[in-house]
Amino acid sequence: MKKLSRKSIVALLALALLVLGAVLWIFFQNRRPNGQWAEITYQGEPVQLVDLRENGVFQLESDPSILYEVRDGGVCFVQADCPDKICEKAGLLTRVGETAVCLPRQTVITVIGGQEPEVDAVAG
User: Fold this and answer.
1) DSSP letter at 64?
2) The pTM is what?
3) What is the DSSP string of 80-116?
4) Which of 31, 41, 84, 111 is the most buried (most CB within 10 A)?
5) What is the mean pLDDT of residues 71-88?
6) Cβ–Cβ < 8 Å for 74, 92
7) Distances (CA, A) of 104 to 13, 73, 85
């Protein structure tokens, strides 16, 4: 029986760790529940609570330069007036805890739990 070299053992261990990491990531991603609400903050302040069960396209009164869309139980940036468009590439957010940010416009979308959250005030 041929002995494995030290490099081969290290490579096998690295591959095993990568596979284990991928399996754990998939497992924990699928355990997060779908959200029913999303909170949008603008310049650090909550400005709108969005029901993810009601499809539609909208803009914020406080910053109409961004177009949002709610569909298929999620929310996403559709169009933003920023140079890099990274926020648009975040895609559809559906699971609790998922977040997308438009840094130039100082806007954050975060998917939150299934019950309607208690909010002191919502503007917009």
Assistant:
1) T
2) 0.68
3) ESSSS-HHHHT--B-BTT-EEEETTTTEEEEEE-SSP
4) 111
5) 93
6) yes
7) 42, 26, 10
Cα dihedral sign for 22, 110, 61, 117? Answer: positive
Of 62, 48, 46, which is closest to residue 105 (Cα–Cα)? 62
Distances (CA, A) of 111 to 36, 63, 88, 119: 8, 20, 16, 15
Dig out the tokens for 73 from the structure: 């139980």
Q: Report yes or no: 99 and 108 within 8 Å, Cβ to Cβ.
A: yes
- Give me 23's structure tokens: 């399996």
Tokens of 117: 């959250």
Taking all residues of the chain, what is their mean pLDDT, rounded to a whole number? 87
Which tokens hold the place of 80?
């933003």
pLDDT at 64: 92
Phi and psi of 45, rounded to 5°?
-110, 135
